[in-house]
Amino acid sequence: MKPLPHNLPSPHVRGVGPRGFPLRLQATEVRINPVEFNPDFVARMIPKVEWAALLEAADTLHLVEVPKGPIEGYEHDEKFLRQMHHVLLEVDVLEGTLQCPESGRLFPISRGIPNMLLSDEETET
Amino acid sequence: MDHEAAQLEKQHVHDVYESTAPYFGDLQSKAWPRVRQFLQEQKPGSLIADIGCGTGKYLKVNSQVYALGCDYCGPLVEIARSRGCEVMVCDNLHLPFRDQGLDAIISIGVIHHFSTKQRRIRAIKEMARVLVPGGQLMIYVWAMEQKNRHFEKQDVLVPWNRALCSRLLSDPSQPGRKPCAHPERSHPYHPPCSVCSCSVCFKEQGHSQRSHSMDYEPLTAGTCCADISKEGEEENGFSNMLGKSFRSWFFSRSLDESTLRKQIERVRPLKNTEGWANSTVSIQPSRHSSLDLGRHQEPLSTREQSLDEDVFVEASQKQLEWPRAPAARKHLRGDQQGEVRRNGDGNFLEGANTSENSMNENDAEEGHPSASKTLRRISALDSTDSNSEETIPVEEQQPGILDSRAFMRYYHVFREGELYGLLKEHVAELHVLSSGNDHGNWCVIAEKKDNCD
């Protein structure tokens, strides 16, 4: 699971947490996969990044050289884009968890796949 | 009710996909062209989700977008992952995304697996929730109206008869068969042979006459079986069963249509040698009018009209009874397609509240009394259900023909306008941009309105 998708998940469990609250990422196994650099693609991803969540994940994953936020003119800043490319697309969490900060509920990441299924009780409305 | 619906879906959607997932490993099915087009039209850099992605066949269509695949079925998701896709396991009804996080969503052959109208609406609303304003949603669902088959009801259980597949397709004399993706299972006639082989065989038997052009009419796999009957041959219950199983695969997994046809044609000699074809069954030339929604041919008496959960059961005796009821055969052919047996483990939506299910009100049915011998209708609420249970042991006496252990997948097939109506009436946050029919599916493209939740 790559950090960009991690940006997106929120538990969306009724009564358990507010919507849109980013999950906390913990990783026990991470792999770095080289991915071809496409600056346009990365540039377009930037507006979609939730920086707080990303930085937290980067910290957890001990990633270095992660920009702290979009910089002026980032679309043409190759260094910036390459750094973002690395953190968004080349880092892959193979084993770990995503945790709802409100409820503490853990979602497993296994073989690179997060399992976001809720239990019956959690889904009861 | 919702619990029962969830249980039905667990048994006849999730568990089936989970069990049959291993056979998808080799499946390289084609993407529907219009879906591909929709994906390719998305702006570069878009965040797209395929909700119900299966093995991820749409996730790599457009390399300029960031595509996420989601599916309830872990094993299928694993296959997608092994192809390098970014995927997660989740529930369409509880998408793990924040509001307005995604630029586009596709839902191809998913909503029809929800067993109540309410759940279908919820699934659509959930996808709308996570869309940005202006973001688009494409939905494909199986159509009730099919050119070469006839669904009697909107709520159907479609079998995947894996024993059929394995016995038919594992014939070593078949040329050009690629090794099964699971070599340890290559022993013929062992159950996990199946769709893996099917798909592989399908792939290879590219039929040059058939194109994937959408102008080719009809393009549904139902055509394949209709073609068989057109060729005047052994259109009997068995080949229908086979055709049905494959058709069901075709619709749900978008198997290559041309190879499917080829596969069906290949099956014919096999079935004769296997002796499955009942040689005493005389073959009537097909009357396609009977397949084309000929209401006058509809079997089954009106006695159960009031019960909406009826699902047709193919009595195993039909093989034997065909010669006796030639009139019935026509609509047997027409009607049994798509509707099939129960697997004997419970009523279809037992205890279901009829008012909540959007199962269709019965059309006026003019029954042919003779048909009632050959086709048994099982009603979820019918006290005679216990009688229908008796068909199951009989079925098991004919192994390979009617495999009562066949995986049965639940579908709610949509009538024309139903999907559109669903959105229009119940999902105010979406504005329908276009709708139509594609390869036997009703499809809709809708856009998330601004200033909505």
From TrEMBL, chain A:
The gene for this chain is TR112
Q: Which UniProt keywords apply?
A: Cytoplasm, Methyltransferase, Nucleus, Transferase
What Pfam families is this protein classified in? Trm112p
Q: Does the keyword Ribosomal protein apply?
A: no
Record localization = Cytoplasm, Perinuclear region; Nucleus, Nucleoplasm
Name the source's superkingdom. Eukaryota
> What protein family is recorded?
Belongs to the TRM112 family.
Q: Name one GO molecular function term.
A: protein heterodimerization activity
Q: Which InterPro entries match?
A: Trm112, Trm112-like
Q: Name one GO cellular component term.
A: nucleoplasm
This protein's major location comes to: cytoplasm
The name on file for this protein is: Multifunctional methyltransferase subunit TRM112-like protein
| GO process annotations (BP) | rRNA (guanine-N7)-methylation; tRNA methylation
Automatic annotation (TrEMBL), chain B:
A GO CC term attached to the entry: cytoplasm
Ranges for the region named Disordered are 278-306, 323-372
Biased amino acid composition, Basic and acidic residues: 289-298, 333-344
For this UniProt entry, the molecular function terms from Gene Ontology, in alphabetical order, are: S-adenosylmethionine-dependent methyltransferase activity; tRNA (5-carboxymethyluridine(34)-5-O)-methyltransferase activity; tRNA binding
GO terms under biological process = tRNA methylation; tRNA wobble uridine modification
Where does the record place Polar residues bias?
278-288, 352-361
Q: Which family does it belong to?
A: Belongs to the methyltransferase superfamily.
User: What does this chain do?
Assistant: May modify wobble uridines in specific arginine and glutamic acid tRNAs. Acts as a tumor suppressor by promoting the expression of LIN9.
Q: What is this protein called?
A: Probable tRNA methyltransferase 9B
To which species is this protein native?
Answer: Neovison vison
